[in-house]
Known about the structure:
The complex is a heterodimer of chains A (273) and B (1004). With 273 residues, chain A is mainly alpha-helical. Chain A has helices at 13-16, 24-39, 45-52, 55-65, 82-94, 128-141, 157-172, 194-221, 227-251; one strand at 144-146. The longest helix of chain A has 28 residues, at 194-221. The two termini of chain A are 33 Å apart. The relative contact order of chain A is 0.14. Chain B has six domains: 10-69, no CATH class; 85-135, N-terminal domain of TfIIb (Single Sheet), CATH 2.20.25; 146-222 and 513-626 and 644-692, 3-Layer(aba) Sandwich (Rossmann fold); 227-319 and 424-496, 3-Layer(aba) Sandwich (Dimethylsulfoxide Reductase, domain 2); 329-422, no CATH class; 816-963, Beta Barrel (Barwin-like endoglucanases), CATH 2.40.40. Helices cover 24% and strands 14% of the residues of chain B. Chain B has an eight-stranded mixed β-sheet. A six-stranded mixed beta barrel of chain B has the order 28-32-29-31-30-33. A five-stranded parallel β-sheet of chain B has the order 11-10-9-17-18, with helices on both faces. In chain B, a hairpin with a 5-residue loop joins strand 13 and strand 14. The two termini of chain B are 47 Å apart. At the A-B interface, helix 1, helix 2, helix 3, helix 4 and helix 5 of A face helix 1, strand 1, strand 4, strand 6 and helix 26 of B. Strand 1 of chain A pairs antiparallel with strand 1 of chain B, so a sheet runs across the interface.
Amino acid sequence: xxxxxAERDGPGFxxxxxxxxxxxxxxxxxxxxxxxxxxxxxxxxxxxxxxxxGSLDEAMATLVDRSGLDVDPPDLTVEDDRETxxxxxxxxxxxxxxxxxxxxxxxxxxQGPPASLxxxxxxxxxxxxxxxxxxxxxxxxxxxxxxxxxxRHHDHARLELExxxxxxxxxxxxxxxGVADGGSDGGSAGAAEPSDLRRARxxxxxxxxxxxxxxxxxxxxxxxxxxxxxxxxxxxDAFVAADVDDLADRLDAGAGGDREHAxxxxxxxxxxx
Amino acid sequence: xxDTTDTSNESTRDASGTARRDFLKGVGAAAAVGATGLxxxxxxxxxxxxxxxxxxxxxxxxxxxxxxxxxxxxxDGKARSTHSVNCTGSCSWQVYxxxxxxxxxxxxxxxPRFDESLPDPNPRGCQKxxxxxxxxxxxxxxxxxxxRTGERGEGKWERISWDEALTEIAEEVIDAVEDxxxxxxxxxxxxxxxxxxxxASGSRLVNLLGGVSHSFYDWYSDLPxxxxxxWGTQTENAESADWYNADYxxxxxxxxxxxxxxxxxxxxxxxxxxxxxxGIFTDYSQTAIHCDEWIGPDPGSDTALALGxxxxxxxxxLYDEEHLKEQTDMxxxxxxxxxxxLRASEVSGLDVDADRPEKxFVMQDADGGLRTAPGSLGERDGQHDHxxxxxxxxxxxxxAERTVQTTDGAVETRTVWQNLRDELSEYTPEVVNExxxxxxxxxQKIAREFAEVDRAKIIHGxxxxxxxxxxxxxxxxxxxxxxxxxxxxxxxxxxxYVGQEKIWTFKGWKNLSFPTGxxxxxxxxxxxxxxxxxxxxxxxxxxAKIQESIDKGWMPLYPSExxxxxxxxxxLMFVWRGNYFNQAKGNxxxxxxxxxxxxxxxxxxxxxxxxxxxxxxxxxxxxxxxxHDLSVTDMHTxxxxxxxxxxxxGESKTDWQIFxxxxAKIQExxxxxxxxxxxxxxxxxxIDLQSVHDxxxxxxxxxxxxxxxxxxxxxxFILENSEESNPEGTDEQLTFDDIEEQPRRLLETGDHWSSxxxxxxxxxxxxxxxxxxxxxxxxxxxxxxxxxxxxFLELDEQLPTHKEGPVLQEKSEYPLSxxxxxxxxxxxxxxxxxxxxxxxxxxxxxxxxxxxxxxERGIEDGxxxxxxxxxxxxxxxxxxxxxxxxxxxxxxxxxxxxQYPDRNNFNSLVPMYxxxxxxxxxxxxxxxxxxxxxxxxGPTGVNSxxxxxxxxxxxxxxxxxxxxxxxxATGSESTDSGSESTDSGSRTRGALGRVSDLLGGDGS
Lengths: 273, 1004
C-alpha cells in the first residue's frame, strides 16, 4: 500500500485554483469520504500517527462541520500503540476464516473476517461478480480504474470511499460560480451537469456505498473491541445516510424505497434510507 | 479503456487546470474547503487505491445508471488454468476475466482423444473447481505479508513489507546455517504433480541451504506399503480410462464417486459396457450404490477377506500357474530352520554366475534339480537392471519340498507357494465369515468370478490403507491380481489412487527441486513422532525398534545426531501448499511439543488456514489463477498448464517469486555479513549463502546464469528436461505454449515407469516386467510375497496374514470405531471453508452415526455431540447415516481447527503410531529393495485403529450455541447497537474468541 503523499511539487491549491471556484460543501463531503478511506487502511506508521496525534480526528470534525450535513463527527482518537491498532485492524478486517454460527440449522457463516471491508459480503441479493462488475463500470465511466501495482477488488471500502470522494469533488469543481452543488444547475464547460453528478452520487450511494456503510456498521456493532473502527463505521453510516437524504431532497428523488436504485434489502434485512 | 477526455475546450482551461486536476484527485482537497488547522491529516485525502486515468476535467455525462450499460459487456480475456495443490483430478479449465478480475471458470473440455473406443475424456472437473473463483476473490485472501505480534496462534497480526518479512526470515536462515544447523531447516510441501514449479520453489531453496525436505505420501498414509514390499515400486497405476477396458472391477475401499469425480464416468461407463462392478466398503457408500454387488466386511478385516478369496482361487485351481512361476517368488525355496530364503551361496555345488551369490535365490526344476532364480538381486547391477531377464528356461516346481545340502549341513526347505498355501488354509469360509462378517458363499463367488474373467482390476483406496496393518492388507489384496495373472495388460492391475505418488515429468521436476542432487529427505511420520516427543510414550518394544532403525541408518532423522551424541531441535519450518499443522495426526503432541521447538514458522498461503494462523510470518501467495505452472496426474496421461488469468491479488506473489526473492535477500545479507561457505557434514558440497540466489536462478543443467528467474521458465525447464515431454532421440517436444493451446498427451515414459505410453491405448503399468520379462525391482527380482527380513520373521509377517490391530483404546471404554474418510465437498482442507461447498452439506464439522448407535445414546439428527477418547474430545454435529454400519463413527476429513469450538479437530482424537515393519531396510545390509526414499518407502501415518465414544451435549452447555454471533454463553450482551462494545471478554464471536475480545476497547 502506498503511503499518503505529504508533500507534492507544483502549485498548491490556493496558488492554482481561484477562490470560490469550488462548492465547499461538496468538497468537504469529498474530503470526509477521502479521510474515511484512509482511516480504513491498515494502520501503517503514518496513519497511526495521525490517529494518535489527533490530527485525523480534528480534520474530520472540521470537514464534517463544513459538509452541510447534520451529523456528529466521530471520535477518531486512539490510545492503542501501532502494533495493537494493527492487531485490531487485522483481526476485524483482514484475517478471515469460516466459523460455525449455528450448529443445528445449517447456518453457514461467511469465510471472511468478522467485518468485511468488501461490499459484496453484504449483498445477499446479488453475486460478487455483479457487484464488482457494476463498480467497474462506474469507475470506468468516470475515468477511473483500480490503480497502483496491486490488483484489488473493486468493492473494497477504500475504493468505494475514494470514488465517492472523487464524485463529490467532480461536483464541487464542476461550476465556475461555485454553485455546482448548491442549487444552481449552471455547469462549467466540459464537465458533467451538477444535477447529473448529484444523480450519480445518489445512485452510487444507493447501489453501493450505502449498502457497504450500513453493512460495515452492523458487522462492527456485533463485534467486541472495535475501538476507533466501530466509531468510524457508525459515523460513516450516518454520514452516508445524511448525504443520501440531502441529495435525494435536492433531486426530489423521493424516499429510499421509491428510488429506482436504492437497495432496500440490506444486510440486516431492513429498509434503509 | 475508452478515453473520455474532451479536448475541444482545451483553450478554455486556464492555469488552474493543474490544481483542479490535483484537487479532483484529492490532493489538498481538505484545504480546499477553506478550513485551517487541519494538521497533517489533510494529506490523507489523496486517492491511493483508485486512480484517475482519464482527464478528471473531462466530460462525464450522466443521466442514470443505465448510461453505464451502453456498451455490450463481454469477457475481455480468458486463460487456461487448473486447480492444485492436492487434488489429483488435474482438470483443465478456462478462466474468464474482465477488468483484471476473475469472473468465472469453465471446464476447458478440449483434451485430445487417443482412443476412440474409450469414452471421451472430456470434460473433466468437479464442483470444487467450479467455484475456485470464490477463493481468488475471497475476503480472506492473504494479500500482504503478515507477522504475528502476539503469541503463536493468538491471532494478533501486523502487516509488514516484503522487505521486512524477507529480511527477518533471511536472518534466521543465515543464523541457522552459520550455527551449522542447516539440517534444522525444514520444508514441508506435498504432492508435486499438480503444481511442480510451486513445489520446487521452496524445495529448491531448502536444498541449496542444506535443509530438510519432508515426505508427504507416507505421512498422509497414502503410500500403500505393500507395493514397495511386493513390487519394489512406490505405487503405479493405470490411468482411469483403462477402467473401461476391464471385464470385472472391484472398488475396494475406493469411494470413486466421491473422491474421483472427474474419473467416475469411466467406472459407470465400464458397467454400461458389460463389466461387472463390485464394491467392497464397510458402509453402503456413494460408490457402492452404483455397483452390481456390495460386500460389506467389518472394519479392519479386509486382509482376512482377501486371503479367504485367495484360498478359494488356490484351492479351486483358478490361479495362473505360468504367471506365478515366472513372475513371482512362489517357486523359491525357503529354509525351514531359519525362515530365510535359501541362497545360492549356501548350496553346495550349485553353479552360480553372479557377483553376489548370497543374494541369489534357488528353485527346484521339474526334474528335481536345484536352479538359481534368474534376475535375483545378486545377479543384477542394483535395484533396476533391465539387462537381465526373469524368463525361465526350465519349469520350476511350485510344490517343491526337499532337503538341501548346504554349508550348514542338511536343511529342510519348502517353496514360498507351499508356505503360502499353509497360510491360506487358515482362511476357511467359516473363519472368513467370523472375522469379516461376509457370507461364506459370497466371498467365494466373488473370488471365482474375479479369477475367471479375462481382465480383472481392483481399484484400491484409502478405506483399506489407513490401518496399522495396512502393509498386510495391501499384500493380501495384491495377491488376488497376482494369483490370477491380472497384471501388465490393459484392463487389469491394482490401481491405488490415494494422493499422488508420482509426477510424470519426473526428471525435470527433480532437477528443478533438488539442483544439488544431494537431498536431505526425511520421513515426516518419523520426524514428527520423534520431535513431538511421542517416543517417550511408546511401548518399549516399538520404541526399541524405532531407535534401532534410526541407529542403523535405515530411516534418516534430522537434525542428525552430532558427534557428541546430542541432536538439536528443528528450528525453522517453511510450509507452503500444505496445511501441516491441521492435518498432523497426533496433533496435540505437535502443538504442545513440536511447535514450541521451532524458532520460526513461515507459512506461504493465499488464505489463513490453520497452519497460517499458527505461524510466525505469513507470506501471501498467488492463487491458482495467478501463476504459471504445470499439472499432471496419474489419473490421466496429459499435461496442461496454469497460466495467470489475472495478476496476483494485493501484494501476493507466486511461490517461485517468493522463494527466489528470499534467496536474493539471503545472498544480500550473507554478502553484507561476510558469511563464509559451510561444509555440509553429510554431502560433498559447500553451503554457500553468498551465491544462493545465483544458484537458485541458474539452470544447473545448461549452466546458464539467471535462466530460471521466472515461473514460466521454471515450467519450461521441467518440460525440456523430462523424457515424458522431450523424449531423447526424437524431434517431438512439448512446450509450454503447446500445452497452453490445448492439453497434450505425454509422449513417452521415462525409466521410472513400468510401461510405455502407447498411441491408441490407455496407460497400464507393469508391462516391463510382465511382457518384457525384466526383473522386478525386488530382492528376488520377482513379485515378492515372502519377506525374510528378521523383523518380518520375528513378527510372523513373512507372508500376508490377518492380524488384529493394536489396542489404542479399550473397546469396553470406547466402543465405537472412528475413521476419517475423504469428503466429496473438499480436497482435504481446501474448500472446507467455502460457502458454496458448506451449503451443500451441514456447513460445519459433522460425525456420521449409525441410527442404532445414535438411538442407544439418545442422539438425534442435528444434535450437538461430544466425540471423545483418552486423547481429547471435539464437539460436532451428529448426522444420522443409515448407510453406515453399527459401531463405526465417520468424521469426514479435514475440517480446519478454527471450525471447531475448541480449536481441536478430527485429528485430535488420533494418536501417532508407527509399525516397525515399515522402518526397515531390505536387504538389511544394502537395501536395494526397501530403503528410505521420500514418498517411496517409509512409515505411514495411519489412523483407523482409533476408538471413541459419543455422547449428546446438553443444549445449554454446547459451545456451539455460543456461536450465535456476538453472544457468549456466559457474557452479557450489549443491546445497544450504537454503543461501544468495549467490555473485554464480555462477548465472543462465533465459536472462536477473536483478538478483539482480548484487546477490548482502547479506553478512549
